[in-house]
Amino acid sequence: MELKFLFCAICGILMAGTIGFSDEVIKSVQLPAPDKSGGKPLMEVLSKRQSIRNISSKEIPVQVLSNLLWAAFGINRPESGKKTAPSAVNAQEIDIYVAMQKGLYVYNAKNNTLDPVVSKDIRSTANESPAVLSAPVLLIYVADYSRMPKFPQETRDFFSATDTGFISQNVYLFCASEGLATVVMGSFTKERLTKEMNLKKEQKIILIQPVGYPK
Ligand SMILES: Cc1cc2nc3c(=O)[nH]c(=O)nc-3n(C[C@H](O)[C@H](O)[C@H](O)COP(=O)(O)O)c2cc1C
């Protein structure tokens, strides 16, 4: 009886050690303050804006990631909490999820942090296109309908799609200014991705957008 107990205890310790080693739990990442100066002139950026699908796996420095997320949907008027992209009835229902090799995070514009969601690389779940598989950063735009409770579903869908378009265009413009490559995508495996992301019933993925350096 005692021997059996000892054997179980040893097995438990060994298993816990293995899980702890292979399943590194991701933590909140404090991003550096976004650099709001510089960048190319607007007309030059508009001339360069394009979809680029040949994306290298080279990592994006954390400062550039912070700048990118602020440009996408960061707070540009702290007194009101309003952001770099417009939002229907200021519902701010779109969250930017950030999928990287180390795991899935959600951008917290108020704290300028990446909050942990899933300690797993879910990028290949989204889409098997080379752009998604190779890009170091995959932005996933998710609408949270619980932030627009008063509207019928048709209006929620319309607002969420248009709001995502503005954010995605900010990303396109930032990428054009920074020499980064990106493409917005409506084609992704919605069901699998929703499951992997642990989304709530009221959350819906609208579009995905890989970002990286051009190949
Ligand atoms: C709502 C939307 C969905 C899109 N979905 C995809 C997609 O699934 N795959 C893809 O490669 N490009 C996708 N695109 C990118 C378009 O193909 C691209 O914008 C178009 O060919 C024009 O090229 P440009 O962005 O370089 O001007 C999408 C664009 C939009 C606006």
Automatic annotation (TrEMBL):
<feature type="domain" description="Nitroreductase">
    <location>
        <begin position="47"/>
        <end position="213"/>
    </location>
</feature>
<dbReference type="GO" id="GO:0016491">
    <property type="term" value="F:oxidoreductase activity"/>
</dbReference>
<dbReference type="InterPro" id="IPR052544">
    <property type="entry name" value="Bacteriocin_Proc_Enz"/>
</dbReference>
<dbReference type="Pfam" id="PF00881">
    <property type="entry name" value="Nitroreductase"/>
</dbReference>
<dbReference type="InterPro" id="IPR029479">
    <property type="entry name" value="Nitroreductase"/>
</dbReference>
<protein>
    <submittedName>
        <fullName>Nitroreductase family protein</fullName>
    </submittedName>
</protein>
<dbReference type="InterPro" id="IPR000415">
    <property type="entry name" value="Nitroreductase-like"/>
</dbReference>
